[in-house]
Amino acid sequence: MARALWKGAISFGLVHIPVELISASLDHELDLSMLDRRDFAPIGYKRYNKQTGKEVGWDDIIKGYEYKTDEYVVLSDEDLRQANVKATQTIAILTFVDAAEVPLTFYEHPYYVLPAKGGEKVYALLRETLRRADKVGIATVVMRTKQHLCALVCVGDAIVLNTLRYADEIRTTDDLDLPASTMKGAGISDKELKMALSLVEGMSEAWEPEQYHDSYREDVLALVKKKIKARQTKTITAAAPAPEEERGSNVIDLVALLQQSLGKAGKGGARAAPRKAGTGRRKLA
């Protein structure tokens, strides 16, 4: 069972639900170590005192806020809790909104919300309310010294808390060089749009996340295995020359490309073959 990252309660109106948060995501990123290219020894990092130059152990490290140059206010974990006890222990629901109203750019990190002992019935009540109303609860929660905006969403039999970015953390599109918002301004014809819609329809299917996996990670691990077998573990591969840019017309015949794509979709060539999702770190045979 995963360890709870946060313990507290969900609060809305006079309702109080004791809960715990468990991270809902798993990191399968390749674990690459940094090496010294001269002797291939691993690179290490030290936490050191900038005045004495001596290494500092974790037990001697505390937090502090720099209120002016080289002057700090020491803040213990208890100080951070006492700054607002209720905020550090409560997921406070502020309002309920339609899920479609929250743009995808706002979503940050998902956590499973689990009911603590004695909170099962009220947890189930909130879950079913979110499901029937087709709403998400917009709330605030303090984690790791930061107050997050978050959305409580019903996903299957679980309530998921997804931290949200604040509006001022989202870059506006005003200064981005985007195509015109109208078909005419963007130079799109009715025929091109109709064919593109047909292509999307032909490639549409039910959402089955299990068929997608990190194939690039598998390719890198295959390369590692190949280099071990060839006894090239210390060989540094030189960068390949950059490909020359194609010269000539930048005009794209969209109709021709869409016709070719529709042909492939019709033969089943546009759909990726179902595969099981990659899991965890693989052993090299």
Output the structural class.
Answer: alpha+beta
Q: Order of SSEs, N→C?
A: EEEEHHEEHEEEHHHH
Helix count, DSSP H or I runs of 4 or more residues: 7
**What is the mean pLDDT?**
83
Name the overall outline. extended
How are the strands of the biggest sheet laid out side by side?
A: 1-2-6-9-8-7-5
* Gyration radius, in Å: 26 Å
N- to C-terminal distance: 29 Å
Give helix % range.
Answer: 10-25%
Poorly predicted ranges (pLDDT <50, ≥5 residues)?
269-285
Reported for the largest beta sheet, the result is:
7 strands, mixed, barrel
Strand content: 15-25%
Number of strands: 9
Short description:
The protein contains 7 helices and 9 strands, in the order E-E-E-E-H-H-E-E-H-E-E-E-H-H-H-H.
Structure, explained:
The protein is an alpha+beta fold and about 280 residues long. Helix content is about 25%, strand content about 25%. A hairpin with a 2-residue loop joins strand 1 and strand 2 (about 15-25). Helix 5 packs parallel to helix 7 (about 255-265).
Which descriptors would you attach to this protein?
9 strands, disordered C terminus, extended, 7-stranded mixed β-barrel, two-stranded antiparallel ribbon, 7 helices, alpha+beta, 285 residues
SSE map:
Layout: E1 6-12, E2 15-23, E3 63-68, E4 71-75, H1 77-82, H2 85-89, E5 90-98, E6 107-115, H3 120-133, E7 135-143, E8 146-155, E9 158-164, H4 183-186, H5 190-203, H6 215-229, H7 254-266
Helix pairs in contact: 5-7
